[in-house]
Every structure is written in structure tokens, then in C-alpha cells.
Amino acid sequence: MEFEFKRAFGVYSIQCSMGHEIVGRWLQEEIGRDTEKLQQVFELINNAQTSSTQLLTLPGVEISLAIEMGEVTVQENVLQQQQDQEFEPDMDFYNSESSAVCGLEDFSILIHQWQRFLTTGR
Fold first, then answer.
1. pTM value?
2. Residue 108 in contact with residue 1, Cβ under 8 Å?
3. Which of 69, 71, 75, 67 is nearest to 30 (CA)?
4. Could you list the residue range(s) of the whole structural domain that residue 32 is in?
5. 13: DSSP letter
6. Which of 39, 60, 63, 100 is least surrounded, with the fewest CB atoms within 10 Å of its CB?
């Protein structure tokens, strides 16, 4: 997963590579500069590294995080509510922007770099 951090006029943002845009949205909208929420994410990562079979979640207002078996899933909550419904083939593109999966190691790197970016600006 590739990403780029940006800061303009005191606003911190992230742009993630295609297929992982939702990860950037989650980081900006659900975590942002909230150090308490960021600490919760670090705790989830640590717990996932020691107990890789347990499902760990961090529900968000619009986007939630789940970690299980070394994979991180970031998904809009509306998709979780509509999993049982069948979607038209045209909805696949929308769904790809609303859900993403990455490895725990890549995700951990992203979160640590986000924390550093917030504290140092680079």
C-alpha cells in the first residue's frame, strides 16, 4: 500500500493508493489527530500480533476497522449492514472504494508513520 501525507493550513491528510482509499478516509475521519484513538489502534495492533486468530475490531462512526489472522480490513459500516443483500455488478467499483484489506505489517507501518507525521510534520 502506497500513501502520502499532506499538511496545509494546519489540516493533516493522507492519500492512499488505488484500492486503499478507504484506509486514508478512515485514518482522517475516524482517527485524525485524536491521540486516544491512535493509542487504541496501537493496542489492537499489539494484541493482533500476539493473538493472530482472535477477531479484533474498532467500530467507527462511518468506517470500522477489523484485524484477524494477520489481515486488516477497513470497511464502511453501511457495507456491513448490507452484506446479505445482492448488489448489481455495477456496484463492484463502489464497493472497492468502500472496503480494503491489507497486511498487519503494512498497516502497522502506516499507523506509526501517521503518528510521526502528526508529531513532527514529516
1. 0.84
2. no
3. 75
4. 3-120
5. E
6. 39
Shortest CA distance to 120 belongs to which of 27, 41, 12? 12
Cell of 15: 492519500
SS (H, E, C) 51-96: CCCCCEEECCCCEEEEEECCEEEEEEHHHHHCCCCCCCCCHHHHHH
User: 63 - beta bridge partners?
Assistant: 76
Short-list 27, 8, 30, 7, CA closest to 16: 27
Place of cell 500513501: 3
Q: How many domains does the chain have?
A: 1
Output the tens digit of pLDDT for each of the chain's 122 residues. Answer: 899 999 999 899 999 999 999 999 999 999 999 999 999 999 999 999 998 789 999 999 999 999 999 999 999 998 765 554 555 555 444 455 799 999 999 999 999 999 999 998 77
Backbone angles phi, psi at 82, to 5 degrees: -110, 15
Question: Which residues share a beta bridge with 102?
Answer: 72
Set of cell numbers at residue 87: 448488489
